[in-house]
Design goal:
- This protein is an alpha+beta fold.
- 36% of the residues lie in helices and 14% in strands.
- The protein contains 12 helices and 11 strands.
- It has helices at residues 2-41, 95-109, 136-140, 159-168, 183-197, 201-210, 222-225, 239-246, 277-283, 296-307, 320-326, 396-410; strands at 47-54, 57-70, 76-82, 89-90, 219-220, 292-294, 311-312, 315-316, 355-358, 363-368, 373-379.
Length: 412
């Protein structure tokens, strides 16, 4: 009799726990649906894809709204293209972690370089009195002192010219003293990867990172491959970057740059072409700072590897020692490449050890190892165009609300 009672009690407990779990999931799904659908209905964003995974299982995955609302000449489409789970997004600065940081991580793990190596060891143009102490770690942590941004395409139109130009530019800040998020620093990391691997940066990414991780819908210049046709469209040309060049109040005007001396601006809706101007105009669509297109499912494969102690299908891909190196907070509360500062709005008050990144097009990743949970949120915010303020719609509140809903689901 006691044994029967114990069995019945166990079954009841299991049933109640399962019911509670299902109820919590319903609350989470309802919250996410309400947050994103309201944004789409108010025409604040065109659409989005969200993927939540916990304890190795997909908790929720959904596509919302539209991948494309406007034709090439910026006319509203009679039949807008619906967002799909396999829609490819321009990852923007998620390129820095999905591609570049992972590639550096791989090279470190193969003992082909050290994060403490000086950049000048691989890029001779950095062997100058002001730059020879900059390390790979400085580039990964945005503490190199290199300028945050510069309109490279005004003075360079291929990768070698780009790398040479960045090396010539004077440092904006002292080395190692402060964190100043720099696209230019990550552009140089792309050059280092090419030098060390002996192959084009994008080829190395495909062969050593994306293919082993089965990220088959992840690439630079997706239109050139002829394999992909469905993208989340971004902006009509590069209106914000043009403003960065022309509007001195943004802090990116330079005495040697005459805004009117170059007029290669695109004047059509970008669909399958990288939005980032430096990547497109000066780097042939390939940069360590921007340029990768991918899907939520493919990004999840990378996240799974990082969450599973660097293993892929049970086999080691990146060692735990290397992961520890990259996911140890520095003085500025961030890891190598990855953001880990839980004061950042998109992962505010996350448990210690959490990491993530955002992209200018509206993309973001948050990983919370303590709860074995990840949040991938891809929004094509730029497709709505600039606001009257001259900026793109701020999706930070959407990220915050979804992160908060997931944390509640996790029991925080």
């Amino acid at each position: 009799m006691p044994k029967l009672f114990y069995t019945i009690s166990l079954l009841l407990f299991s049933f109640v726990a399962q019911s509670q779990s299902e109820q919590q999931k319903k609350v989470l799904v309802h919250s996410i649906d309400s947050i994103i659908q309201s944004q789409v209905q108010q025409q604040l964003i065109p659409g989005a894809v969200v993927l939540i995974k916990k304890d190795g299982k997909v908790v929720y995955q959904q596509a919302y709204g539209y991948a494309r609302l406007y034709s090439r000449d910026h006319q509203l489409l009679a039949k807008p293209e619906k967002m799909q789970l396999n829609t490819m997004f321009d990852l923007a600065s998620l390129t820095k972690v999905v591609g570049t940081t992972t590639a550096i991580m791989y090279l470190v793990d193969q003992h082909l370089l050290s994060v403490d190596d000086p950049v000048a060891k691989y890029v001779a143009a950095f062997n100058t009195s002001d730059k020879n102490s900059i390390t790979i770690k400085n580039l990964l942590t945005h503490t190199s002192g290199i300028d945050e941004w510069y309109p490279l395409f005004y003075r360079a139109n291929n990768r070698q010219q780009v790398f040479s130009l960045i090396a010539q530019l004077p440092l904006r800040y002292p080395i190692g003293v402060q964190r100043k998020y720099s696209d230019l620093g990550f552009t140089i990391l792309g050059e280092i990867i090419q030098v060390v691997s002996g192959m084009p940066f994008e080829q190395f990414e495909q062969e050593k990172i994306f293919k082993p991780l089965q990220m088959l819908h992840t690439t630079y210049n997706p239109l050139k491959t002829g394999k992909f046709t469905h993208f989340a469209a971004t902006s009509f040309g590069n209106p914000y970057e043009k403003r960065m060049v022309y509007d001195s109040t943004l802090g990116f005007t330079y005495k040697e740059i005459n805004p009117q001396s170059w007029n290669g601006w695109r004047n059509y809706v970008l669909n399958g072409e990288v939005n980032d101007g430096n990547a497109w105009y000066a780097n042939g669509g390939v940069s360590g700072a921007a340029g990768i297109f991918s899907t939520a499912d493919d990004i999840q494969k990378l996240v799974d590897m990082l969450m599973n102690e660097g293993k892929v299908s049970g086999m080691p891909f990146i060692s735990d020692k290397t992961l520890q190196t990259f996911f140890t907070k520095d003085t500025f509360l961030n890891g190598l490449g990855w953001m880990m500062d839980t004061h950042d709005s998109f992962m505010k008050n996350a448990p210690e050890g959490s990491f993530g990144h955002t992209g200018f097009t509206g993309t973001s990743i948050v990983v919370v190892p303590q709860y074995h949970t990840s949040i991938i949120l891809l929004i094509n915010r730029q497709h709505m165009g600039l606001l009257p303020t001259g900026k793109y719609y701020d999706v930070s509140p959407i990220r915050q609300q979804i992160f908060h809903a997931v944390m509640q689901f996790c029991g925080q």
